[in-house]
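TL;DR need C-alpha cells for one chain.
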Amino acid sequence: MELDTNIKVIEEDFREGKFIKCESDILKLLEIAKNNKRLLNLLSLTYFQLGKTDDAINIMSDLIDKNPLFYEGLVNLGFFKFKLRELKQAEENFRKALSINNEQIEAKTGLCNVMLLSNEDGKRNSEIEKLILEVLQKEPLNIPFRQIAGRFYKSQGQWDVAIKFLERVLTNELIYDLFECIYEVNNQKELQDFIKFCNKTYSSDKRMASLTDFACDQNEILNPYNFCPQSLNFIKEYEIFNKNKKDTILFSSDKELKNNEEKIIYNDLNYSALKYDDKLLKENDEIDIKESFNNLVVKYIAENSTRNIDMFDKFPKKCEVGIKKINSNMDFERNYVPWISAFFLNPKENKEKLNIKFNYIIDGLSVKKKKIREKSFKLSNNKLLIFPSFVSFEIINKEANLDFYQLNIYGKDK
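>> reply
TL;DR here they are.
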C-alpha cells in the first residue's frame, strides 16, 4: 500500500514536470521493488523527458519483451519512436498495441499521427479518414482526434472542413494550421479578424509574424500584427569598418568554425545596458570583429526602438550571440528561434560579394498575385546585413561554394 502511494506521488510530480526529482525518487523505490513494471514504465518516460532517449527506449523495450501484452508500454515506445521520427517502428508498435486492445484511444491517436506524416502520396487517405470517422462517431468531442481531423482535411485542401475541426481545439502549434486555412479560404474580413485575435492571444510570435506578412501582402492589405509587420522594412545594412582600416580587424573566429556548427561568442549580454559607440572603429588601432558586431546590433535595435513594434519594444534584455560559417550551396530553412540574424563575409577577403534576396513567401501556401514583394542586397566584405530571423531569403550568387557567416541573437530566460 505504501509503495502504491509513493508511486502516485511520483506520477503527480511527473505531470508537473519535476523530472529530475522523479528520476531520483524512482531509483530509490526500485532498490526495494526492483522489477516493478509501473515504476520501470515511469522511469522510461522520465528518461525520455530528460533527453536520455537510449535509456528510455532500452527500459521500455525490455519491459515489452518480458510483458508482450503490455499495451501501455507498446504505446509509449510508439510515441518515443514517433518523436524521433522513426515512423516505421512507431507504426509497428501502435499496431501491436491495437491488436491487444482495439478500444483504447491512445494507440489510434499515435497511429493516425504516424499515417499523417507518412502520407506524401495520398495512398493512406482512406485509412486515415476511416479511423477519424470511427473515433469521432463514438467520441465526437475527442480533442486529439478533432485536431488530427483538422490537419488531415487541411492537407486535402478542404479548408472549411478543417476550420470547423480546428477552431475549437486550438493549441500553440495548431494556430498556424488554422491561420493557413483561413488564408486559403480567401475571405479578407475573416483574415483580418483572425489577425486581431492573434494580436491579443498569440502576440510576439515570430512564425505568426511571417505568416501574417505573407497573407497580408498577397491580399494587398496592411499587416496589423504587432510583432514585426512588413518585416522587409527592418532589413538594414551597416558598415563594419572603414575600408582603410580593414587590416586592423581581428577575425580569429574563422579558424574555429566548421560548416553550420554554431559557436556562442557572447553569453548573458545585456543589450538594454549598452549604447552604440560611434568612435569604436574610428579611434582604435586594433579591434576584434566581435566587438564591432555587438556594437552594430545595439545600433540596429536603438534605431528601430521608436517604431512601436513588439519585436523591438520587447527585445530581450539578456541575450546569447552565436556565430557560424555557412555556404551558399546549403539548403536554408526559416528560423523562428533567434530574434534577429545577420550575414557578413570574411573581412580579410577583397573581392567577394554575396547576392541575397528576401521575400515573404511561405512554402505550401498558394500565391494569389503574380508580383512578389522582395528586397535584394549585394553584400560586400565590409558590411553587416541585419534582418528579422524569420524572413525568407534566397542566395542568388552565380559563384558556387561561397563561404560566409551568420550571426544569431537569442533571448535568454532570466
